[in-house]
Design brief:
Elements: E1 3-5, E2 7-11, H1 21-24, E3 26-27, E4 32-36, E5 41-47, E6 53-57, E7 76-80, E8 85-89, H2 93-96, E9 97-98, E10 101-106, E11 112-119
Parallel strand pairs: 1-4, 2-11
Antiparallel strand pairs: 3-11, 4-10, 5-8, 5-11, 6-7, 6-10, 9-10
Length: 124
């Protein structure tokens, strides 16, 4: 069963930073991670393994059931080097949501920690 991620924190436009991104992430428990995607989230992964890991943001078909650019090339993949952090920022719901959820597939969960931050602009 996919690991459903809730936002670690909701960040606004006041410039408040995150001092230790990796400490806030949770251990990956499944190679499939998902979150309720509004297009204002950033999905993070920290690779604590000795080998690089690949994470793939799954594209969704159009409302007509067709791939957006005509093929599987719509998926977005990153390779996260050992000991490094990778992220997918601000995935457009129209391109990456299925039933309101965006999905990232990991090639392995060994040493991987994952999490999502949500950005909500505010005017004060």
């Amino acid at each position: 069963m996919a690991q459903l991620l809730e936002p670690i924190a909701v960040l606004d436009g006041r410039g408040v930073g995150v001092a230790d991104l990796q400490a806030a992430l949770a251990a990956a428990t499944d190679t499939t991670t998902q979150w309720r995607n509004t297009g204002r989230e950033i999905w993070y992964a920290s690779n604590g393994d000795a080998a690089p890991q690949t994470a793939t943001l799954q594209a969704s078909p159009t409302r007509f059931g067709r791939p957006i650019n005509g093929g599987a090339g719509d998926d977005q993949a990153i390779t996260i080097p050992a000991g490094e952090v990778g992220f997918f920022p601000f995935a457009l719901p129209e391109m990456f949501n299925v039933a309101g959820l965006a999905t990232v597939e990991l090639d392995a969960i060994t040493g991987m920690s994952v999490g999502v931050y949500r950005y909500v602009p505010t005017l004060r």
